[in-house]
Design brief:
single chain, 8-stranded mixed sheet
Length: 304
Amino acid sequence: MRASKLFIALIFSYGIVNAQVTDELICAEKAHFHRKALIEKRANNDAYHGYNIGYHRCFWKLNPYEGSDISGSVLFRFRVDNTVDSLAFDLIQQLQVDSVLVNGKWAKTERRSNQVFVFNDQKWKAGSLDSFTVYYHGNPAGIPGGWGAYTYDNHATGPIIHTLSQPYGAPFWWPCKQSLTDKIDSIDIYVETHKDFKVGSNGLLLSDVSTSDELHKIHWSHRYPVVTYLVAIAVTNYVEFTDYAHFDGRSDSLPVLNYVFPQFEASSRSEVKDILPMLRLMDSLFIPYRFEKEKYGHAQFTWG
């Protein structure tokens, strides 16, 4: 892809850049992430997260025609690590938590900077499976420190909202357990937006249903473990097309789903085909492509 046409890989891809990687750079990066891991390990104790995340159901409402606001809810299902009276999730303090529902009742919450603690009168019992639902809203675009985790922008033919949360940006736009060590087992993502827009996200597209004369709701379902920062959405007036990668020794094929800006459709249809032999080669040399029951997906966005 040309530099002017950078893509988000919604499931699995790596970008290669021309850069000199020195031993000093490698050591510095290792030290940096080691410090980050230690901080996370200290924070992820009984008084902080205190649970192992299993499933999320996310529902978001946004409309790029109207700006960058987002509202919605996120269901957490999890296994409790130890008996405690509160559990926490991460959400940048510039976003507003409207309420949290536990077992059908509104729960007491307490915000401590960029974490929100959810209290349970019956305590969260060690080893139990439980859940809560967070309702929230706000404008994540441009929050200092977010590094483009949630971006509102325009391209030549329309507005766009896209996310890119690596590695610590997820709480800048959605309530979650910010962790690089506890993957989400599975996730359903629902996005309601204007009918002019498609929504790219993780997994398989299960439904696209009209909710009014102007709006529709899109449902993506991802059934592979996924780290929090790789949950992504991209919303604009995409043109959609699909290619297929055929693997050695297997009769099935992998959909390569592409969401591109209308003004780049012709060139993208030609250039994206270069990815097909790459996928086949990597699959034959290493291990089978890890998300072969879903897709390999691209959604074009405005960084370049």
